[in-house]
Amino acid sequence: MNVQNMTSSNGNKVANQFNVIDDNGFRYYQSYNSMIVKIDNNNIYLDKKYWNFSNTTSKYRNKFLHETTKETMAKIKSGEYKLVDLNSKEVA
Questions:
Q1: Which one of 27, 35, 41, 56 has the lowest number of neighbouring Cβ atoms within 10 Å?
Q2: Is 70 domain-assigned?
Q3: pTM for the predicted model, two decimal places
């Protein structure tokens, strides 16, 4: 598993915002102790509770996905992104 702090627009490491790559090559965006986004192969999952939790979460989620919140919302609505519970104890 590879965990790195995300970086701000001026290149500084941002506390509590992480880009994670697991041993299967799946990518995650984690804010504090909560998984926000999971990308496995061509599927994108957003945590149904935390995906749009705060301004900071949204800012770094947008950076992780390379899109705006409006674009993310459209992809949720179209079914391209799936809302799931990424923070359940059952999710591995």
A1: 41
A2: yes
A3: 0.92
Closest CA to 87 of 54, 55, 48, 61: 48
Between CA 79 and CA 69 the distance in angstroms is 15
What's the rounded Cα separation, in Å, for the pair 28 and 43?
Answer: 12
**Amino acid of residue 31:** S
Q: Specify the amino acid at residue 84.
A: V
User: What tokens appear for 16 in the block?
Assistant: 């509590």
pLDDT digits (tens, 9 = 90+) for 11-69: 999 999 999 999 999 999 999 999 999 999 989 999 999 999 999 999 999 999 999 99
What secondary structure does DSSP assign to 23-79, as a single string?
TTS-EEEEETTEEEEEEETTEEEEETTTTTSSHHHHHHHHHHHTS-HHHHHHHHHHT
Domain count, the chain: 1
In a domain, 89, yes or no: no
Residues paired with residue 17 on neighbouring β-strands, in sequence order = 31
